[in-house]
Every structure is written in structure tokens, then in C-alpha cells.
Design goal:
It is a single chain. About 45% of the residues lie in helices and about 15% in strands. The chain is α/β, with parallel strands linked by helices and about 450 residues long. It is globular and about 50 Å long.
């Protein structure tokens, strides 16, 4: 595989899309030796085909605010690869949303979904709409306008979106209601639905829970457990909340959460029910700040404009947004003795940060493996919808736990390098094999 040639062509075709190019280069570097050892993939141009989305949909989303003023946003759906199942991936409503960013997320989703072993292809979508400061009615009108175009392109056997940043239970409800009205059918077309109308138990906690289950397996490789480990987390939404809840339950001590305004350090730990409930209150306020936590719990301290990676911990869980942990942050963590980094956001670490962790032999779990718990439970929600049946909380949690263990084992199998496990390489190869083989089986389409 001529990596330089492929990347040069990709850059020429996708100008101004740095996140997508970064994600593609990481995957290609990891799988190069494997592809070279198995010439069928080069002969069938699988790599070149997998880098090109099967379909990209872009549309305008007009809506009116509570004052009657008209606004126009841009909507997207990137249907990247359906070789192993319907497109599956979240919808993100955030001002930073661009086509390049969604292509990066959709590309990552291909391999993440493959790793779950569930029959789901890769996709992603969203809008540059900012839900912050909007009323429920404004958000409803926006969601209805967004779905009035998207409904043509999705379905339970075609494309099954989920929530992501800016799209929670409220937004999924509005989107589902409009889809149902337009299509006159009640199907499992969206995941993350309300528990009383088709949703799955454990779904809000799933990404965080899954990340901790993956970390448990990483710890076992060194004969350790979470008990007594100090932990830093970024973010403070559902994902961070799930990490804090499960890590605390298993004996870890979570010391930080963060937001765009800075981070909070709580020496008493963020694991009590009162503190976990307050995290949800903070997120539900829609103000996107964490400073009030330090006012509510006086032993905690707020550090404005800073990131939590300067705190001395055993484990770090970047859980907010892409490229939030850079090379300088990685250096700080390494100097402070951090031994495990579990990427719980999508591509939460920059390439130089990952390189630093590998060089220092820090156990690093990449997002496409460590944070696959969310989409795994979305897949389980799809199964329950198809059966018109609901599993118990314990059943869903047990299935999630097993899926994350299996993902870890697949990463280990393809990522062992002497006494070190390169989880990035292992995840990319394991995810690639299933999709690539399916593409070959299905012909040049």
C-alpha cells in the first residue's frame, strides 16, 4: 500500500478537512503492514474505497425563533459505509459542525461499529445549529425542520441516527415525532429514545460505562484494578457522568470534570449520588459551564480557562470533544506519573499526544475502541425495537460488559508488540478486517 500516494490524493480531494485527514492517516499508518501482507485488499482497492463516503447529504434547515425571526442553518448526513449493516452514528448540533468534522466522525464510526461485532455500518450527521440558550419550542421547531429533509434518507434498515453533542433525549423525541408523522410508521429509526417509547435501559450511561469496562481490561493486563486509582475526566455531560458513576462504583476516585470555562478539582472525589445528580443538573441547565460546581461543593476548586490534565492522577479519561488533549498535555500527564489514558471522546487526543503515550509505554485506549459502548447499546436498542421487546437493566449491562471485553481482546490480539499493547494499531486492524472482507464479498459497489 502506497501510503504517501493515497494520502496525497486524499488531501487533494478533501481540502480544509484536517480532522478527516488526521483520522484517515492514523488508520492507514496502523493497517499498512497488515494490508501489505494481504495483497487482496490492494488488488480490490479496498483502502481507496473505504476512504470515500458512499453518500453525503447536505441541506438547508430554516426555522423561526420565538420572536418570529427566520434563521437558516445547514444540515448534514454522511453515510460512509454500509458493508456490514445500516449506517449508524450520531447527530451533532453544535456551531463547530462542518462537513470535514462529520466525515472524520463517520469514518471513525465505521471501525468502531465493526469492533462491537454488531451489524452496523458507519455514518454521522448534524448541523451547525447551537442549542445553547434556545427555548424548548425553538429547539422543537429546528428539529422538525431538520427531520423534514432527513426523513427521506434514513430508516430502520437504511440509516439509524442517534444522539451526540447537542442532541439528547429531548432532541431525539422531537426528531422521532416528526419522522413518525411524515412516514406514518413507528419504527426503531432513531436510538437514544425515551425509555417508555422504545429506548433501552443503560443507553445514557453506556459510553461512560463501556469506557470504564474497557479500562478494566487494560488494568487486568498489568494485574491491577480500578480500586484506589485516581482519575481525571474532561467534560461534564452524559459521557463524563457515566465514567464518573462506574469508575466510582468500582473503587476509583474521580478528581476532575471540565467545561469550556475551565475545570473543577474536587479532592473529595466526584462519586457520591448527590454530586453525580448535580452533574446532570449542570448539563440540563444548557449553560455549558462547570464553575457552579465549586460553589455548590465548597471543598472543590475551579480553575478558569485551564484543562484538567495538569492534575496528578493514575488515569485520564478525555471525554469532551476531539483533539482536547495535545502533546503538551500528554507531557504533563506522563511527568505526573499517569499510567493509563482512556480516550472516551472521539479522537480526543492529538497525534503528537498519542505518539508521546506510546513512546512512554503508557497504556492508551483509542476512542474507536474505548468509547464504543454508546453505539453498542444503540445497537442493542435496535435489536430490542426489532423484537418489540425490552431487556432488563442487568441484561443490557451484562451484554455491554461482554462487548467491551471482546473489543479489548480483539485490540490485544492485533496490537501486541512484545510486552506492550498498541491498542490503536489493534483497534484499527480488527475493525478494518471485518468491513474490508465484507466489501470484497459484495463486489465493487
Amino acid at each position: 500500500m502506497d501510503l504517501q500516494k493515497i494520502m496525497a490524493e486524499l488531501e487533494a480531494k478533501n481540502p480544509g478537512q484536517p480532522e478527516f485527514l488526521q483520522a484517515a492517516e492514523e488508520v492507514l499508518e496502523s493497517i499498512k503492514d497488515f494490508v501489505d501482507e494481504n495483497p487482496k485488499y490492494s488488488e480490490e482497492k479496498v483502502v481507496e474505497r473505504i476512504l470515500e463516503p458512499e453518500r453525503v447529504i447536505m441541506f438547508r434547515v430554516p426555522w423561526t425563533d420565538d420572536s418570529g425571526d427566520v434563521h437558516v442553518n445547514r444540515g448534514y448526513r454522511v453515510e460512509f459505509n454500509s458493508a456490514i449493516g445500516p449506517y449508524k452514528g450520531g447527530l451533532r448540533f453544535h456551531p463547530s459542525v462542518t462537513l470535514g468534522g462529520l466525515k472524520f466522525l463517520g469514518f471513525e464510526q465505521i471501525f468502531k461499529n465493526s469492533l462491537t461485532t454488531l451489524p452496523m455500518g458507519g455514518g454521522k450527521g448534524g448541523s451547525d445549529f447551537d442549542p445553547k440558550g434556545k427555548s424548548d419550542r425553538e429547539i422543537m421547531r429546528f428539529c422538525q425542520s431538520f427531520m423534514s429533509e432527513l426523513f427521506r434518507h434514513i430508516g430502520p434498515n437504511t440509516d439509524v441516527p442517534a444522539g451526540d453533542i447537542g442532541v439528547g433525549g429531548r432532541e431525539i423525541g422531537f426528531l422521532f415525532g416528526m419522522y413518525k408523522k411524515l412516514r406514518n410508521e413507528y419504527t426503531g429509526v432513531l436510538t437514544g429514545k425515551g425509555r417508555n417509547w422504545g429506548g433501552s435501559l443503560i443507553r445514557p450511561e453506556a459510553t461512560g460505562f463501556g469506557s470504564v469496562y474497557f479500562a478494566e481490561e487494560m488494568l487486568k493486563e498489568k494485574g491491577e484494578t480500578l480500586k484506589g486509582k485516581t482519575i481525571s475526566i474532561s467534560g461534564f455531560g452524559n459521557v463524563s457522568w457515566g465514567v464518573a458513576m462506574k469508575a466510582s462504583e468500582l473503587g476509583g476516585k474521580v478528581l476532575t470534570i471540565s467545561g469550556p470555562d475551565g475545570y473543577v478539582y474536587d479532592p473529595d472525589g466526584i462519586g457520591s449520588q448527590e454530586k453525580l445528580d448535580y452533574m446532570l443538573e449542570l448539563r440540563a441547565s444548557n449553560n455549558d459551564v462547570v464553575a457552579p460546581y465549586a460553589e455548590r461543593f465548597p471543598n472543590a476548586k475551579f480553575f478558569p480557562g485551564k484543562k484538567p490534565w495538569e492534575v496528578k492522577v493514575d488515569m485520564a479519561y478525555p471525554s469532551a470533544i476531539q483533539n482536547e488533549l495535545n502533546g503538551e498535555d500528554a507531557k504533563l500527564l506522563i511527568e505526573n506519573g499517569c499510567q493509563y489514558v482512556v480516550e472516551t471522546s472521539n479522537m480526543g487526543c492529538t497525534a503528537d499526544a498519542i505518539e508521546a503515550f506510546h513512546k512512554a509505554k503508557i497504556a492508551f485506549g483509542p476512542g474507536k475502541a474505548a468509547n464504543a459502548g454508546g453505539v453498542a447499546v444503540s445497537g442493542l436498542e435496535m435489536s430490542q425495537n426489532s423484537m418489540r421487546y425490552n431487556w432488563t437493566r442487568e441484561e443490557v449491562d451484562a451484554k455491554l460488559h461482554q462487548i467491551m471485553k471482546d473489543i479489548h481482546d480483539a485490540c490485544k490480539m492485533h496490537g501486541e508488540e512484545g510486552d506492550y499493547i498498541n491498542y490503536v494499531k489493534g483497534a484499527n486492524i480488527a475493525g478494518f478486517i471485518k468491513v474490508a472482507d465484507a466489501m470484497i464479498d459484495q463486489g465493487v459497489v
